[in-house]
Amino acid sequence: MEFKEARVQLLQGCRDNDLVSLALQLLSLVLFAGLLVAILAQVSKVPSSEDQEKEKSNQEKIYQELTQMKTEFDRLCRPCPWDWISFQGKCYFFSKSQQGWHEAITACKEVGAQLVIVENDEEQSFLQQTSKSKGYAWMGLSDLNQESAWRWVDGSPLALSLMQYWNKGQPNNYEEQDCVEFRGDGWNDAKCDLKKFWICKKPATPCSK
Questions:
Q1: Which residues contact 196 (CB under 8 A, 6 or more apart)?
Q2: Average pLDDT along the chain, 209 residues, taken 10 residues at a time
Q3: pTM score over 0.85
Q4: Among 42, 166, 192, 199, which is most exposed with the fewest C-beta within 10 angstroms?
């Protein structure tokens, strides 16, 4: 039941974001079409000098209004779905329920994301601090295919520069611990079927210019 609720939360966040973006785009098209019709109607006339001044003033007002609307549109644009956190051009979802490692992978895939892969020190610091306040959380790292050969869910190996983040005495493979979690101030290997929070990651959607 918790897994289904988490999936609903993830999918709803994405759908809400898509609907807002679509509505804003349709509104922009309608306004642009209205402005174009107004300009064409005025061009078809032969205006006097006084009319030309009025028309110029009106066009300036319309331009200012459109500029203001674009500013408001940009404020509404969200690079990440609701309930996701944006960091360095990526979107992160910190789950509110707990599942096993394999179920966490499935949950992320269903919203077009991956169980999080750590790429650099800045991202590690962000993820560690955020997950520390929420609880132990799965990342997309395991040695399921070959013992002690740690690989991310995309098949890439764990970089040597990131091995410093293992907690003291970890990984220890105690009782077949093959999946990795954020735990305290570092990483810890744990049994994959244990229920924990998880973190999804996907690229942010750039706002249209």
A1: 98, 99, 101, 104, 135, 136, 137, 138, 181, 190
A2: 49 52 60 60 61 76 73 70 94 97 98 97 96 92 96 98 96 92 95 98 85
A3: no
A4: 42
